[in-house]
Design goal:
Elements (H helix, E strand, L loop, with lengths): L7 E4 L5 H12 L8 E5 L5 H9 L2 E4 L3 H11 L3 E5 L7 H4 L5 E6 L11 H7 L4 E8 L9 E8 L6 H24 L11 E3 L4 H17 L8 E3 L5
Parallel strand pairs: 1-2, 1-4, 2-3, 4-5
Antiparallel strand pairs: 5-6, 6-7, 8-9
C-alpha cells in the first residue's frame, strides 16, 4: 500500500503525551508528511504544538464542531484519525472522511473503555495492558476493532510508562488498521468489556496501594469504579 496516495486529518489535544509520540513516530516513518496530513488541535500551547512547529506540518486550531466540520470539508481527508481527542465526535463529523474515521484508544478493547485507561491499569495492578485502533461510532470506544496489541506491564511501573508504551504501540496499529481497511477488512465487532469512570489521581493512588497489598497477600483486588457492558453493545 502506497501511503502517500492517502490524505489524513490528525485530530489531537495539544496537551497530551500520546499524540506527540504517535505523530513523531509516524512523521519519521514518512507515513504522515507535510503533503498528506493536516493536524487539527485545540491550542497553540503544549508539547504537540511545539512538535508541529518543529516538523513544519500544516495545522489549524479549532474550538467548535462547526470549525471541525469546515476543516474536514476543505481538506477532504481519506482518513480522520482521532488520537487523544477527549470529545465525542458526532456522525455528521466522522462521516466526512471519504474512507474511514479511526480512534486510537489506550487499552485492549473491548475491555477498559473510558478515559485514562492507563491509570486504571496501574491502579488495578494489571499484568497486561494494550492499545486499539477502532472505527469511530456514536459511542465512546465502541466501534469495530481494526487493529490491537497487548504488552506486559512490569512490576512497579508508573502510569506514565503504561501510557508511553501504549502510545508507541499505537503508531504501528494505525498503519496496520489502514492497511486492513484497504484490504476490505471491516473490523471485529466489540462484545462485552468494562467501562471505567474518571476518578481523581488521589483515588488512583489509594486503589494502587490496596491492590498492591491484595496482589502480594493473595486476597481479592478491588477494581477501580466501572460498569460491565452488555455482551453485545
Amino acid at each position: 500500500m502506497m501511503q502517500q496516495f492517502y490524505s489524513y486529518i490528525f485530530l489531537a489535544s495539544a496537551n497530551q503525551i500520546k499524540p506527540v509520540i504517535v505523530l513523531s513516530k509516524l512523521e519519521k516513518k514518512d507515513f504522515f508528511n507535510r503533503k498528506n496530513t493536516l493536524i487539527l488541535t485545540d491550542s497553540k500551547k503544549g508539547a504537540l504544538f511545539k512538535l508541529i512547529q518543529t516538523i513544519g506540518f500544516s495545522f489549524e486550531v479549532i474550538g467548535t464542531l462547526d470549525e471541525l466540520k469546515s476543516e474536514m470539508r476543505k481538506f477532504r481527508p481519506n482518513y480522520l484519525i482521532s488520537c487523544g481527542w477527549p470529545y465525542l465526535l458526532p456522525e455528521k463529523v466522522f462521516n466526512l472522511s471519504s474512507k474511514c474515521s479511526l480512534n486510537c484508544h489506550s487499552s485492549l478493547l473491548p475491555d477498559y473503555k473510558g478515559a485514562s485507561a492507563f491509570k486504571h491499569y496501574w491502579s488495578n495492578w494489571e499484568k497486561k495492558a494494550g492499545a486499539t485502533v477502532h472505527i469511530i461510532s456514536k459511542k465512546f470506544d465502541d466501534g469495530s476493532i481494526m487493529a490491537s496489541a497487548s504488552f506486559d506491564i512490569p512490576t512497579f511501573s508508573s502510569p506514565k510508562w503504561i501510557l508511553k508504551k501504549s502510545s508507541k504501540v499505537t503508531c504501528y496499529l494505525i498503519i496496520k488498521a489502514i492497511h486492513n481497511f484497504e484490504k476490505g477488512d471491516s473490523g471485529e465487532v466489540q462484545k462485552g468489556g468494562r467501562y471505567f469512570y474518571k476518578i481523581s489521581n488521589f483515588k488512583h493512588v489509594l486503589y494502587w496501594l490496596y491492590n498492591g497489598f491484595a496482589t502480594y497477600l493473595g486476597f481479592a483486588k478491588k477494581m477501580t469504579p466501572h460498569k460491565k457492558l452488555n455482551e453485545i453493545n
